[in-house]
Amino acid sequence: MTDILRTQGLTRAFGGLVALRDVDLAVSEGTIHAVIGPNGSGKTTLFNVISGIYPPTAGKVEFLGRDAVGRRPEALADMGLGRTFQSSRLFMSMSVLETVLVVLHRRGFALTISAAARRRALEILDFVGLRDLADTACASLPQGQRRLLEIAKVLALDPKLVLLDEPHGGLNHAETARLIDTIRDMRRQGLTILLIEHEMDVVMQLADEITVLNFGERLAHGTPAEIQGNEAVVEAYLGSAGETAVAPPHAQTDTSRLLDVRGLSVRFGDIEAVRGIDLHVAPGEIVSVLGNNGAGKSTTLKAISRLLPASGEVMFNGADLLHQRTEKLVGLGVALVPERRRLFGGMSVLDNLRVGAYGRPPAEVQEVMAEVLDLFPSLKRLAGLLAASLSGGEQQMLAIGRALMSRPRLLMLDEPSLGLAPMLVDQVFAKLADINARGTAVLLVEQNARMALAVSHRAYVLASGRVVAEGDAKTLAADESVKNAYLGIAA
Amino acid sequence: MDSERLGWKLAAIAGLAVVMALGLPRLIDPYYVHVVDVTLINVVIAIGLNLVLGFGGQISFAQSAFFGIGAYTFGALQAHGWPAIAAASVAVVLTACIGALLGWPALRLRGHYLALATIAFSLIMGELMVDLDMITGGANGMMNIQGLGLARDDIAMLPILLAVAAVGIGASVVFASSPAGLRVRAFRDNAIAAQAAGVNIRALKIGLFVASAVYASVAGVCYCCLLGYISPDVFAWQTTFAYFAMVVVGGLGSNLGAPLGAMLYTLVPEWLRFLQEAYFVIFGTVVIIVIAVMPGGMAGLVTGLFDRLCRALRPRPVAKATPEGTP
Amino acid sequence: MSATLIQLVLAGLAMGAVYALVALGYTLIWNAVGIVNFAQGDVVMLGAYFAVGWCVDTWHLPIGIDLLVMLAFMAVFGWAFATFVYRPVRNASQLSAIVATLGLGMVLENTVVLIWGPQSLGFAGPLGNATVAVFGARIYAQYPLILVVLLLLMCAQEGMFRFTSIGRAMRATAQDAEAARLMGIKTQNITTLIFIYASVLAGIAGWLLAPVFYVSADMGVRVSLEAFAACILGGFGSIPGALIGGLLLGVIESLGGFYISSEYIDVIAFGVLFVTLVVRPEGIFGEPQMERP
Q: What is the average pLDDT across A153-166?
């Protein structure tokens, strides 16, 4: 079988950040090939480079035996390379039919839309199951139909290779099943499909071959069965507990609930990202929220921090947080260390810390600052530097320190290990154990499950927006169901 | 939109033009005929701006420059004895070329950077119109432009201007319902998705600039023919904001909106002379209100009312959604 | 150094200082909320008209008091601007923000003509026609006054940004509004404060400018263009860029107008601006980024 698409030594760097490193990929004609990997592994960058959105820093891409590097996306589309986008990129002012017609009429100076084009458009809509909605405005389509329309758009190109970027994003069970069928139909028609997908059970069902990326490099390659059994892959997803043993958490006996979340739900349009989550944190506890990418972990934290609208109940110390605005949280005793830190890069380390204590009297600010610098001695040395010039590990420490400036009773962290080398991850988690030992409760969202479980009292495992496992951290660490939740192995 | 509806729309435009050509001179004062003439010229400019701004979503402040280049080229060629048709053709083609040249660096710019670049362009052109006084007559402008020999004859120019405006609107209407119009809307809605769908967005962006240049330069030629003289202050870069206001208040992306906006900006204040500045204070406020809460503009209001009326007269199941952006 | 050269440079610096003040207004608003306030020049005009037209001409307030009253008015105006023009379009596209500020500009220009008529107003300013000798050249005393005011203002501003809690809050909001909220900062109020501050700056610019040029409805438009150029030269979003860009532009215009030609100077200046935009939109100090999300 010929290779429709081949990459060799593909590398893409953004300034100092290497998103893709030396990736070799071969997609055989008529197969469904899946690219998987944890958050930040470079999957979307791979797609962007292949489809011509930006060129690679090094390496080759061959499509249909011809060099694809340097060609514009329109040109590649003409050659037969179609792609969909992770978040539906639809033409909001148009109807479903018009959207497909644009692709069919992408060139030429015809005065009116031809009857032949109209017929073909309806055919395509029929194939994906959108025929009845031909005249509906795209803006009023629910998520399930939007994903189908993305596929219809790409089919209208009459492509040879289709790049599907998380086609199942936000779909419910029935919709997912339908989409799986549609993708299989596409393969039956002779199309080759390259697929990025997070829903592991979907990947395992559909894929003929799987390539696993981790930190921008190719980690493994093979059939679904081979991948599920591959220890390196398991470790990539679940993380490792590191070589230096992090101290196990001190005994915790308080059973009252400092944070009590009941029935938390978050919707984006009509996607339910988080469905009816219950969790709680006792004073002085460390609780982890684990799960694969797209499981809803960060969304949960953002909902609690009021960065996203949500429904349900979030009781903290007697107050319902869902009735508060984000600005009120630190006053109540809740501090969040956001995903990717979100430091004020143009301000100095000390200024960042001072902002963390915004609104407090100057004397208190001085006092707390001394405490925080005590806890993070490395920050003393960096005091006057701009936050943007710090290394990843130093930034994470600063972000935590900044959050501690408000003397919170509950410290929440959103993926603190993201982008950090393993040794730094050790240091960060050691600090968290330290902070917790001084009495602050910690709610931790983390992708590195093993590390998180090593420092936590209890944990919850999320999948598809729901809690699928919960309990004592030590017990969960030994539990196979956690691994299965991450790798999409049906229970 | 199907060909039948399109046909009706074009017929309606043509019909309206004929009715106005025959009826207006009899019904209104010659001074107001002049105002209508000027309004028609603004309509043409506004339609051109609507193509690049409303359909294409590109923030271009270059209209006043294109208007001026068309007018001055025509006038200058006529001053050298060129006949009207030839001079007009060259004026339009030259402006179109300049439009293409502007479109090319504009490919890299978006949003407020494009806005600033096009303002700079308009300013430079405006200054050149005064500075290159060998060609342009400097601050005094150009006098005695032959045109069609109908200078100052507002009533005779009326049917001609109506014809030009009708053709301009008609072309825009045809464009809107053509595949090319669909591509432009796709480009405006989501340029990256359009690109992934195989649309050549660079050619499209340049094409929009060229189209708006063509419209504005045609308007420039008409202006010369109407007045018989031109002076640089009409093309000063500040006037470019007026066309913006017209298109926004009329309704961005609407072929009905651009003429409506032109009328509201040019014609109505003449009737309401006594309100003078207060009128434009209100106009400015309406601009803010429209862009904040009424993106369909006046045209949106009108079509909304029209739709409601139709539905009241002939109740029909409300199953179809009318996409925005089509007239 | 010839007296003419000194005169030109100082006059250029003075004009440049005014441009810098207006450019600063653009920069602050851009940094805070990601929109270009096309009406900033007209806000300058508003300040000038209020101070001259009402405070001095109508109410006959002494010089100095008229400035303070006008600044109080500009603060209120800034609040109204933030609440009624900015807030409705804050989540909309760049185009909406540009159009909204253009609409505001139209309202302001026509309002001043409505109230004070089409004639321009004269204003002697605190120093009248007094001249002063600097390095052997005679220049209007108003010029050094403008420079001194700018210097004092910038020191005060730096002090505020660096050493006060509010200043830190403003910087934090400008860099990352969501993260600022997580710190307990009420970003909505801070944003309004930034608009108020930018309007007050515009008012000061108008008051400084009024004695040099007549107070007229189109003064804002002219100043705004130079201020844009200053921002682009210095890099959109950079405060030192706005200052240096403004001063530099003022001097270039002054020297260029005299030594090259006053006719083509505008063409040259804006030609340079156009080329800068195309080739290096981030200017001298800015970071290469084309657009705010």
A: 92
pLDDT tens for each residue of B119-144? 889 988 888 888 887 777 777 777 87
pLDDT band at residue C107 using 50, 70 and 90 as cut-offs:
very high
Strands of A259-268's sheet in order across:
A271-281, A259-268, A311-316, A319-320
Q: Is A27 left (phi over 0), alpha (psi -120 to 50) or beta?
A: beta
CATH code: domain of residue A24: 3.40.50.300
The answer to whether position A365 is within a domain reads: no
B133 lies in a domain? yes
Q: Is B221 inside a domain boundary?
A: yes
Residue A398 lies in a domain: no
How many Å lie between the alpha carbon of A104 and the closest alpha carbon of chain B?
Answer: 9
CA distances from B211 to B44, B47, B199, B235, C46 (A): 12, 10, 18, 19, 38
Contact assignment for A109 to B180 by CB distance below 8 Å: yes
Residue A324's φ and ψ, nearest 5 degrees, are -110, 160
Query: Are C284 and C235 a contacting pair, CB within 8 Å?
Result: yes
CA-to-CA separations, B225 to B73, B152, B161, B166, B218, in angstroms, rounded: 13, 8, 10, 18, 11
**Is there a contact between B198 and A105 if contact means CB atoms under 8 Å apart?**
no
State yes or no: pLDDT of A248 exceeds 70: no
Same domain, A221 and A274: no
Per-residue pLDDT at A240: 66
The torsion angles phi and psi of A207, rounded to 5 degrees, stand at -75, 140
Q: Helix, strand or coil for residue A258?
A: coil
Look at chain B and count its residues: 327
Helix, strand, coil distribution of chain A in percent, nearest 5: 40, 25, 35
Q: Do B197 and A94 touch (CB under 8 A)?
A: no
Residue A422: per-residue pLDDT: 75
DSSP C81: I
Q: Are A357 and A368 in contact (CB under 8 A)?
A: yes
CA dist C41 and C217 (Å) reads 10
Nearest Cβ partner of A326 from C172, C175, C182? C182
* HSE-up (13 A, CA, CB side) for residue B236: 10
B313 CB-side CA count, 13 A: 6
A395/A384 Cα distance (integer angstroms): 14
The alpha carbon of residue A356 is apart from the nearest alpha carbon of chain C, in Å, by 5
The secondary element (H helix, E strand) that includes residue A369 is helix A362-375
DSSP H helices, B190-314, are 191-196, 201-227, 240-250, 257-262, 268-271, 276-293, 297-313
Task: Check: CB of residue A206 under 8 Å from CB of residue A183.
Answer: yes
Q: How many domains does chain B have?
A: 1
A347/C contact by beta carbon, under 8 A: yes
**Owning domain of residue B237:** 3-313
| Sign of the CA dihedral with C125 first, then C130, C132, and C137 last | positive
Is the four-CA dihedral A113, A119, A122, A127 of positive or negative sign?
Answer: negative
Percent helix / strand / coil, chain B, rounded to 5? 80, 0, 20
- Phi and psi dihedrals of A94, rounded to 5? -110, 170
Higher confidence at residue C283 or residue A220? A220
SS3 letters across C18-74: HHHHHHHHHHHHHHHHCCCCCCHHHHHHHHHHHHHHHHHHHCCCCCCHHHHHHHHHH
Inter-chain touch C273–B131, beta carbons under 8 Å: no
Domain count, chain A: 2
Query: Within 10 A of B125 (CB to CB), how many other CB atoms are there?
Result: 23
Q: Do B244 and C102 touch (CB under 8 A)?
A: yes
Contact B155, B26 (CB under 8 A): no
Task: Tell me the pLDDT band of C293, cut-offs 50, 70 and 90.
Answer: very low
Question: Do the bridges between strand A441-445 and strand A458-463 make them parallel or antiparallel, or are there none, so unpaired?
Answer: unpaired
- In this complex, the residue of B59, B120, B128 whose CB is nearest that of residue C98 is B59
